[in-house]
Amino acid sequence: MRVDRVIGVGVVLVDPDGRVLLGERVKAGEPPSWCLPGGAVEPGESFEEAAVRELREETGIHDAGTPRVTAVVLDHPAGGVRVTAGVSMAAGAAAPVVTEPHVFRSWRWFSPDGLPEPLFEASARLLGAVEAGGRYRVAAGQPNSRSRTARNVA
C-alpha cells in the first residue's frame, strides 16, 4: 500500500498591528479558500529556508524578519501523512503582490480574531496550533476546525 507523504511549511507573517497575511486561493480544481503563504519543502531545505522561498515566490516579499518555527502539525489527510511547520516571521515594509494569479486572487491582512472563511484546511490547523502555543501538535477531526482538532503531545 502506497502512503502519500507531504512535508510543507505555512508562513505566519505578522505585521506591526498583529495581523496575519492570508491569500485568497482560487486554484483550479479546488474550492476557493483563504490560506497562509507556503508550500512543499524541497530536498535539502530546512523549514526556515522553505518558508523564505515560498514567501518570496508567492508574495514577492524579500524583507521579512528572521524565520522561526513556532508549531508543527502532523495530520493524516485521506490516509496519507502530512507534516506542516508553521514558520513565524515579522512583516517588513514590502507589500505583498499577487505573483501567481492562477493560484491567488489577492493577499490581505486579517486580525487573528477576524479570520475569513473558509480557511484552507492545512492553514486552519496550523493557525490553531500556533494560537494554542503548541510546538508539536497532532491534528484530527474536521477540516477547518482550528484549535479544537489539535492536541499537544510535547
UniProtKB/TrEMBL annotation:
InterPro entries: Nudix_hydrolase, NUDIX_hydrolase-like_dom_sf, NUDIX_hydrolase_CS, NUDIX_hydrolase_dom. The keyword Transmembrane helix does not apply. Residues 4-132 form the Nudix hydrolase domain. SUPFAM superfamilies: Nudix. It comes from Nonomuraea thailandensis. Belongs to the Nudix hydrolase family. The keyword Hydrolase applies. Its cofactor is Mg(2+). One of its GO terms (molecular function) is hydrolase activity. This is 8-oxo-dGTP pyrophosphatase MutT (NUDIX family). Keywords: Hydrolase, Magnesium.
